Structures are given as structure tokens and as C-alpha cells.
């Protein structure tokens, strides 16, 4: 049997696709060193935030792009992860790994519960019910006066990473985030071409047929939704450490919408889609903010342009060029 | 003992009784055809048996296992597989990927997410085997949605076969086919009966009388008559139902 | 609990519900007929609020201000439909969400550029500024009574329009079976444009009327959009009657949650906990309502399609 079909999934750019991720990883790993020498600490921080958002976007791309589940409440899980860190720090936990690990578990548990209910609906109703649950989490956070309520909660002392180092060490924390982001990205890329990923795209394309083929459709979707929620929670936990601050606004519905927008912008269900979308969106926002206080409208215009001119997202544009 | 027994199946949609205490059985190795005019409730019955619609009453037993309360996917795992009247394949994927997806459902867990599926030689062998069975081995790399109708129907049947079913539910496999494709499908079904008992829902009377060991006639959600081909052909009520709507030779 | 207080809250809830209905009616029709999710509906509401507040301030005429706001918003909506929304009808919901989210971003910046970043004070018309003595012990703001009256009038008007006119028949035909309507020769494109403009007018009206009793600020459209979406989902997408019932339900549940839940919790829970949970439960109430409705009736209370 031939291998053509599987290599054809990466059109004609096989060589580039092989070394590009590694080159990118090396370049990013060098950034804190170079940045410190050039006095670009702010930008090192910016890239760190970008990497964290990429984790969340990658998880959303997995359920939306591969699984066809249009969830508009992903920021809720980011919030759960962030507040788990807050709760643990407030209770005296100082280890980053404990706090982040707990965030993954707690947000995964929330995702499992919310998914169990939401996945009984379809389409717009699914979109709305995931939004509704995120709103519930939002109001819950507002009401937690012990953690600052509406005003948010400041994390004043950095978390311990082990060997006497903390998240206050900007370069080290950067590398930790980079390593986690790289792991999440590789895992998502691999999962997409695994049995699980294939089953998920099958469900996206023809749910009834998958059920009739013998697939436990609901359980598969729930597993994906739970995993994505857990990863979003991880992003939330890292974001809490990155900002040293957590507030309910993390969970506002426009945050969920923005995440959705970034994924679609980059290219739904494409390996590099989420990463590309986050990079373009955040870099553009940052650059525009430098020049004008009216930095939203060009982004809005870009979204409209993408919907009409590049319906498969920016990653889709690259495909066209390489196969043309 | 019958391989498959459906007893007193009932389905209501609001006030309408779409399936009215229908009982059916299929013997091992048998092709049991289910015919009836449009709107007789054939599609509803297929959906009840395959589990895509919940029944309001009755029971379904396959090979001694009670399937009534099972979800559709669990029924497939217990040996009840189906195809669809409106061709239901993964149109954007190649024939190979279609087959791989079907095969994957029945060998090992689909929750595995670390290993590339493309490295699983066992799956690819099974997929190739299926392709041979229905005669699609030359079209493995074609995109399913671009294939002619008749070929897509074969693929649909192949997807159902991946489950290694004890009972195969064929929902109008000849729908929308020309005579040549129909004849090919008849030959395919005749070969498949060696592997599974078949419940055949079909409009094409030529095909039905060629293939069926037994025929049940459905009308207004009820079984009007059930028996061998000669019995059905001579049955006065059946003739009345079909008079002017379809030719019963 | 004091019956006067309960009655007052009931009126407030109805008022909020009716305003939600004005927003939701357009949203549900656009969704039901064009199968289009328009997130920018809230931006039309914001436009109505801003124009009305500014024209009222400049001219002194509230009625004039509301009319100008509606006219201006319909004009904006006309351009919006022509340039963007029209091209989205055939697209999937995700594309619609993304593009109309883009419109939100543009609209917020446009408002900021025209009227500045800080909230605008919308004054209550002088004639309606005082209270009306509804019952001996219940003074109620005259303006809120007018709000109730206008809301009810529009609801009745919409009911007549949808159920007893030719235009309404076309709209209903489009909502229940678009393909069939096209087949029957209904000029669907025109019906679409009409419905979109009508929805915009209602949203602008709601914005103009809500201005004096809420904050006229950037982001107000996004804040009201979610309750409006909750309403159309509870009511059944595409059903104006469903939107009406659901809007009143949501209005009442939301207002009741805010007014009655905190005292109720205080009577059964320790004060600190009650103070925490009160606002949370109040904020959550409408979402719980939606989740409950969807679990019992997955297509909403009044599904428009059989």
C-alpha cells in the first residue's frame, strides 16, 4: 500500500515543514538571551503571553477545527485554571507545578461536567449553552469576594519552579512556557493524525454515519471537550503567573469570542492555524496600539476581509501558494 | 432459533403512529426483504432497528442479545450494521480513509491519541480487504465525493461491512441506480449473504424477487403480509396495495 | 416581603423584558429567516442610544431624538446589510460570527471617534422626570411607565404586522420554510432587507429608550447582546411570539433575581456568604433558565420550524 496519501496531507513543502518548527523553537529559545542584551524585556514578556494564548487557542482549534464543536465559552476554562491558582496560592501553596497541575485537573473536571450537558445540543444551541456556562463562571468569579470579586486578585509572590528558582525569573519562566507550549503543540499535531483525531473529524463531517459505524460519538466528543478544557485551564494558570493578577474579565464572553476569532483567522482544523492566528492577532494589536488609540477597527476590517477573501484562514492561504 | 427478532415495535410521532406493532424475524443466512409503498414506514422501521430513533415500545433481539435499550453504536458492536438510503460516506475523504475510519471502529480503541494511525499496518490490511470485497481496490485514492453514484453506494455497503455484522441492514441499496449498477449491486448482495443475514429494504421489485428468501410487506406502519416470494406475489391485499403504484410481477 | 416592593420589581422586570423583546425580535427574525447570526445587532442598539442622547441634548425634543435615532440607525443598517450581511446569508454560522464580530470592533471605534471614549449622559425628558403615584404608597417613575407603554405598543404592532399583513405572511413563510418560500416566488432578498431594517429600527428604539435609565457607553451593545441571544434561544429561534414570552420571562427572572435573591439568601445563609452568592445567583439566573428550557425543550419554547 502506498504512503502517498499521508504525505500528500502536507503539500509539497515536506522539507520546510520538517525543519521549520525546530528552527522556530531554537529562535524562540534564544529570545530571552538576545532580548536581555538588547533591552527588549518587554517584548520577551509579550512573546511569553503569546505562547500562553497559543496553548488555549490550540485546544480550541482541536475541538472546533477537528471536532466541529463551536464552543463560545472557552475563556471560562481559562478562568477556572487561573482561579485555581489563585485559590491555591491563597491557601499557601507556593509550588508552580502543584498549582498548575491542579489547574489542569480542576478545569478538566469543569469541562467534563459542562460538556456532559452541552454536548446533548447541536449547532447554535451548543454555542449558546457553552456561552451560558461561561457566563455562570464569570458571575461566580465576580461573587468570590475572598479573591477580590470584581477587582481581581493580585499574586504578589512568584511561584516556585524548583531548585530555588521562581516564575519571577523572567527568562526561566519564558523557557518553561515555551517548553509547555511546544509540548502542547506537538501533542495536538500528533493527536490530529491519531485514531482519536480521525474519529473526531469523522464526527465533524457526518455524526450519524459515525454512530452507525459503531463509534461512541458522545463519549468521543466529551473526551475531546474535556481535554481541551483542561489545556485551556493550563493556559489560564500560566496566564495568572504571567500577569501576577487574575480578574473575572479573563472570562468575559468577548474573550471567548476573541479566542474563536484568532483560531478561525489562522485556519480552522489546520496544524498551524491556531498558532498563526494568535501570532497575527496579538502582534497586529500590539503594533496598532503603538500608533493609535483606535486600534480595534483595523482588526475588525481584517476579520471581515478574512471571512470573504480567505474563508479557510491564513494557513489556507499558504496552502494555496505552495500547491499553485 | 431465529437470528434476529423484532417484536411489537411501536413508534409514534405526535398523533401519527409511524410503526404499529411491527414484528419481524430474520433466520441465519437469510435475505429477508421489506417492501411497501412510499410512506409505509420503512425508513422509520430501519431507524428503530438500528437505534438511530428510540422506539416507544417493543423489543429487538439479535443472536440472543437484547438490543432494545442499546445506543446505535452499541448495536453495531453487537453485530447489527446498516447502510443508508441517502448515500452516507465521508465525501471529502479518499476511499481509503473512508474504509480506514470504518475499520478503526472495530479494532481497538478510538481514544488512542499518541500514535499516528498511518503507522498501523493492521488497519490498512483490513481496509484493503474490505475494498476487495466490494470491488473498490482500484479507487482507493479517489476522493469519495467525486465518485459515480453506484460506486459511492458500494462504498456505503463496505463501511457497513467493516463491523463484520451478523445482520446487515440495507436501506434501499439500489435507490437512484440505473439498471447496470443495480445488477452489480444485486450480485454484490448475493455474495454478501455468505457473510451475514440481510434485512433488505428495497423498491426495486426485480432485485427483491431475485434476492429474497422471504418478504414482508409494510403498509401504514403495519406488517400486511409476510411469507415466501410466491406467497407474496399471489397475496390479494398486497396486490391491492401495489395496484397502480408499483408493478408486482 | 413588602407587596408594594414586589409589585414595583414586577413592573421593572416587565420594562426590562419589553426592551429585551425589542432587541430580540429583530435578532430572532434575522436568525430565523436568514439563518444568520448577527452579533453586531448590539452595535445597532448602541448607535440608537448614542444618537438619541446627543440629539435630545442638542434639540431638547425627546420624541424627535428617538425618531432621528431610529432613522439614522436604519440608514446604517441598510449600508451594513448591503456591504456585509447580505454576503453572509449563504455562509456558515462561524463565518457570520467572525465577520459580525469584526463589525462590532469597527462600530466601537467609530463611536469612540465620533462621541469620545467616556460615557454619555442621556437625560430623562423633563416632562417625564417625576414619579407617578400608581398606588397610594407606590410612586413609580413616569419615564418607566412610558417605556412599558411603548414596549407593549410595539409588541402589539409587531404581532399585527407579522400575523395580519401581507408582508408578515412573507416573513413567516420565510421563517418556517425558506426554500419553499423561494419556490413560491417570494422575493426573498427584499424580504431579508426589510426584516433586517425592521430589526435595526427596533434595536435603535430600544437603545434610545434605555439610554436615560442605563449607561450610554462603548460596549453597551456587547453587554445587552447576550441576554438578547438568551431570549431568542429560550423562545425558539425564529419565533416572534417565543421571543416575546421569553423576553418577559428573562426580564422578570433577571430583575427578580437581583431584587429578591440577596434578601432571600440573607435570611437562610450567613451574611458574608449571602453577600457573596447573592449577586452571583442573580447574574446566573437567566442562564440557568436557558439551560433548564433547553434540557426540557431543545429547540426552545416555541420552535418556529415544525
UniProtKB/TrEMBL annotation, chain A:
Identify one Pfam family in the record: BPD_transp_2
Q: Where found?
A: Cell membrane
What membrane topology term does the record carry? Multi-pass membrane protein
Keyword Secreted listed? The answer is no
What domain of life is recorded for the organism? Bacteria
Positions of transmembrane segments: 20-44, 51-77, 97-117, 124-147, 167-188, 218-239, 259-284, 296-318
Signal peptide residues are none
Indicate the segments annotated as coiled coil, or none if absent: none
Record-level Gene Ontology MF annotations: branched-chain amino acid transmembrane transporter activity
Q: Name one GO cellular component term.
A: plasma membrane
Sorted alphabetically, the keyword list is: Cell membrane, Membrane, Transmembrane, Transmembrane helix
Q: Which CDD domains match?
A: TM_PBP1_LivM_like
Q: Which PANTHER family match?
A: ABC TRANSPORTER ATP-BINDING PROTEIN, HIGH-AFFINITY BRANCHED-CHAIN AMINO ACID TRANSPORT SYSTEM PERMEASE
- What name has this protein been given in UniProt? Amino acid/amide ABC transporter membrane protein 2, HAAT family
* The species this protein was found in: Aromatoleum tolulyticum
UniProtKB/TrEMBL annotation, chain B:
**In the record, what terms sit under GO molecular function?**
ATP binding; ATP hydrolysis activity
Keyword Metal-binding found:
no
Query: InterPro entries given for it?
Result: AAA+_ATPase, ABC_AA/LPS_Transport, ABC_transporter-like_ATP-bd, P-loop_NTPase
User: Does Nucleus show up as a keyword for this record?
Assistant: no
The entry's keywords = ATP-binding, Cell membrane, Membrane, Nucleotide-binding, Transport
Q: Name one GO cellular component term.
A: plasma membrane
Tree of life domain: Bacteria
Q: Tell me where in this chain the ABC transporter domain is found.
A: 4-245
Spell out the protein name for this chain.
Answer: Amino acid/amide ABC transporter ATP-binding protein 1, HAAT family
Per the UniProt entry, what species is this protein from, by scientific name? Aromatoleum tolulyticum
UniProtKB/TrEMBL annotation, chain C:
Residue ranges that the Swiss-Prot or TrEMBL entry lists as coiled coil: none
Keyword presence, Electron transport: no
Q: Could you name the domain of life of the organism this protein comes from?
A: Bacteria
Q: Which Gene Ontology molecular-function terms are recorded?
A: transmembrane transporter activity
Q: Where in the cell is it found?
A: Cell membrane
Question: Which Pfam family, just one, is annotated for this protein?
Answer: BPD_transp_2
Any transmembrane segments, and where?
Answer: 12-34, 62-85, 97-115, 142-162, 188-209, 215-237, 244-265, 277-296
What does the similarity note say? Belongs to the binding-protein-dependent transport system permease family. LivHM subfamily.
Q: What protein is this chain from?
A: Amino acid/amide ABC transporter membrane protein 1, HAAT family
Amino acid at each position: 500500500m502506498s504512503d502517498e496519501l499521508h504525505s500528500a496531507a502536507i503539500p509539497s513543502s515536506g522539507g520546510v515543514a520538517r525543519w521549520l518548527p525546530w528552527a522556530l523553537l531554537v529562535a524562540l529559545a534564544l529570545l530571552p538571551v538576545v532580548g536581555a542584551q538588547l533591552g527588549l524585556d518587554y517584548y520577551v514578556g509579550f512573546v511569553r503571553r503569546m505562547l500562553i494564548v497559543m496553548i488555549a487557542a490550540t485546544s480550541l482549534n482541536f475541538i472546533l477545527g477537528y471536532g466541529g464543536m463551536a464552543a463560545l465559552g472557552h475563556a471560562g476554562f481559562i478562568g477556572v485554571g487561573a482561579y485555581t491558582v489563585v485559590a491555591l496560592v491563597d491557601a499557601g501553596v507556593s509550588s508552580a507545578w502543584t498549582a498548575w497541575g491542579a489547574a489542569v485537573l480542576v478545569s478538566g473536571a469543569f469541562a467534563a461536567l459542562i460538556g456532559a450537558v452541552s454536548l446533548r445540543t447541536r449547532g447554535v444551541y451548543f454555542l449558546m449553552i457553552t456561552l451560558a456556562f461561561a457566563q455562570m463562571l464569570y458571575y461566580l468569579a465576580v461573587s468570590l469576594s475572598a479573591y477580590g470579586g470584581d477587582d481581581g486578585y493580585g499574586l504578589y509572590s512568584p511561584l516556585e519552579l524548583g531548585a530555588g528558582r521562581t516564575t519571577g525569573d523572567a527568562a526561566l519562566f519564558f523557557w518553561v512556557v515555551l517548553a509547555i507550549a511546544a509540548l502542547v503543540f506537538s501533542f495536538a499535531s500528533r493527536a490530529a493524525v491519531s485514531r482519536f483525531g480521525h474519529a473526531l473529524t469523522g464526527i465533524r463531517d457526518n455524526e450519524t454515519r459515525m454512530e452507525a459505524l459503531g463509534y461512541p460519538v458522545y463519549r468521543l466528543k466529551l473526551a475531546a471537550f474535556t481535554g481541551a478544557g483542561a489545556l485551556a485551564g493550563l493556559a489560564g494558570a500560566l496566564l495568572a503567573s504571567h500577569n501576577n493578577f487574575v480578574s473575572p474579565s479573563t472570562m468575559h464572553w468577548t474573550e471567548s469570542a476573541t479566542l474563536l476569532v484568532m483560531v478561525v483567522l489562522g485556519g480552522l482544523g489546520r496544524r498551524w492555524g491556531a498558532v498563526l492566528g494568535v501570532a497575527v492577532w496579538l502582534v497586529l494589536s500590539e503594533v496598532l496600539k503603538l500608533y493609535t488609540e483606535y486600534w480595534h477597527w483595523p482588526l475588525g476590517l481584517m476579520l471581515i476581509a478574512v471571512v470573504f477573501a480567505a474563508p479557510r484562514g491564513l494557513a489556507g492561504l499558504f496552502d494555496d501558494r505552495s500547491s499553485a | 432459533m431465529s437470528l434476529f427478532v423484532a417484536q411489537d415495535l411501536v413508534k409514534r410521532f405526535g398523533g401519527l403512529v409511524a410503526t404499529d406493532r411491527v414484528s419481524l424475524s430474520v433466520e441465519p443466512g437469510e435475505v429477508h426483504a421489506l417492501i411497501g409503498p412510499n410512506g409505509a414506514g420503512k425508513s422509520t422501521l430501519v431507524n428503530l432497528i438500528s437505534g438511530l430513533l428510540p422506539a416507544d415500545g417493543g423489543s429487538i433481539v439479535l443472536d440472543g442479545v437484547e438490543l432494545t435499550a442499546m445506543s446505535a453504536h452499541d448495536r453495531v458492536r453487537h453485530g447489527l450494521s446498516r447502510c443508508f438510503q441517502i448515500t452516507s460516506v465521508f465525501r471529502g475523504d479518499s476511499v481509503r480513509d473512508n474504509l480506514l475510519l470504518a475499520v478503526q471502529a472495530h479494532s481497538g480503541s478510538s481514544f488512542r491519541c499518541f500514535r499516528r494511525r498511518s503507522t498501523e499496518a493492521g488497519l490498512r490490511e483490513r481496509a484493503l480487504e474490505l475494498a476487495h470485497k466490494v470491488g473498490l481496490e482500484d479507487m482507493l485514492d479517489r476522493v469519495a465525493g467525486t465518485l459515480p453514484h453506484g460506486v459511492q453506494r458500494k462504498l456505503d455497503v463496505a463501511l457497513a461491512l467493516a463491523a463484520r455484522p451478523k445482520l446487515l441492514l440495507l436501506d434501499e441499496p439500489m435507490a437512484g441506480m440505473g439498471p447496470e449498477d443495480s445488477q452489480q449491486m444485486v450480485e454484490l448482495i448475493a455474495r454478501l449473504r455468505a457473510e451475514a443475514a440481510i434485512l433488505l429494504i428495497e423498491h426495486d421489485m426485480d432485485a427483491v424477487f431475485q434476492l429474497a428468501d422471504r418478504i414482508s410487506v409494510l403498509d401504514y406502519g403495519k406488517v400486511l403480509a409476510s411469507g415466501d416470494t410466491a406467497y407474496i406475489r399471489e397475496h390479494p391485499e398486497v396486490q391491492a396495495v401495489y395496484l397502480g403504484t408499483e408493478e408486482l410481477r | 416581603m413588602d407587596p408594594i416592593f414586589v409589585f414595583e420589581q414586577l413592573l421593572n422586570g416587565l420594562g426590562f423584558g419589553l426592551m429585551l423583546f425589542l432587541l430580540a425580535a429583530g435578532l430572532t427574525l434575522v436568525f430565523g429567516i436568514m439563518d444568520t447570526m448577527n452579533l453586531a445587532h448590539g452595535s445597532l442598539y448602541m448607535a440608537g442610544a448614542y444618537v438619541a442622547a446627543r440629539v435630545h441634548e442638542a434639540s431638547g425634543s425627546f420624541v424627535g431624538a428617538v425618531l432621528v435615532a431610529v432613522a439614522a440607525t436604519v440608514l446604517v443598517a441598510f449600508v451594513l446589510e448591503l456591504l456585509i450581511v447580505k454576503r453572509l446569508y449563504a455562509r456558515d454560522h462561524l463565518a457570520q460570527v467572525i465577520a459580525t464580530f469584526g463589525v462590532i470592533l469597527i462600530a466601537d471605534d467609530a463611536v469612540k471617534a465620533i462621541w469620545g471614549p467616556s460615557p454619555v449622559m442621556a437625560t430623562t425628558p423633563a416632562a417625564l422626570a417625576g414619579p407617578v403615584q400608581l398606588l397610594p404608597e407606590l410612586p413609580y417613575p413616569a419615564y418607566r411607565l412610558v417605556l412599558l407603554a411603548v414596549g407593549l405598543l410595539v409588541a402589539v404592532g409587531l404581532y399585527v404586522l407579522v400575523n395580519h399583513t401581507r408582508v408578515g405572511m412573507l416573513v413567516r413563510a420565510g421563517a418556517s420554510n425558506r426554500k419553499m418560500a423561494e419556490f413560491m416566488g417570494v422575493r426573498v432578498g427584499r424580504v431579508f432587507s426589510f426584516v433586517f431594517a425592521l430589526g435595526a429600527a427596533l434595536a435603535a428604539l430600544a437603545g434610545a429608550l434605555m439610554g436615560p435609565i442605563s449607561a450610554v457607553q462603548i460596549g453597551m451593545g456587547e453587554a445587552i447582546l447576550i441576554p438578547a441571544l438568551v431570549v431568542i434561544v429560550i423562545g425558539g429561534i425564529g419565533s416572534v411570539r417565543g421571543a416575546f414570552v421569553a423576553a418577559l420571562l428573562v426580564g422578570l427572572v433577571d430583575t427578580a433575581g437581583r431584587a429578591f435573591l440577596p434578601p432571600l439568601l440573607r435570611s437562610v445563609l450567613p451574611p458574608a456568604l449571602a453577600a457573596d452568592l447573592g449577586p452571583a445567583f442573580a447574574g446566573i439566573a437567566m442562564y440557568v433558565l436557558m439551560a433548564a428550557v433547553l434540557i426540557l425543550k431543545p429547540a426552545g419554547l416555541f420552535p418556529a420550524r415544525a
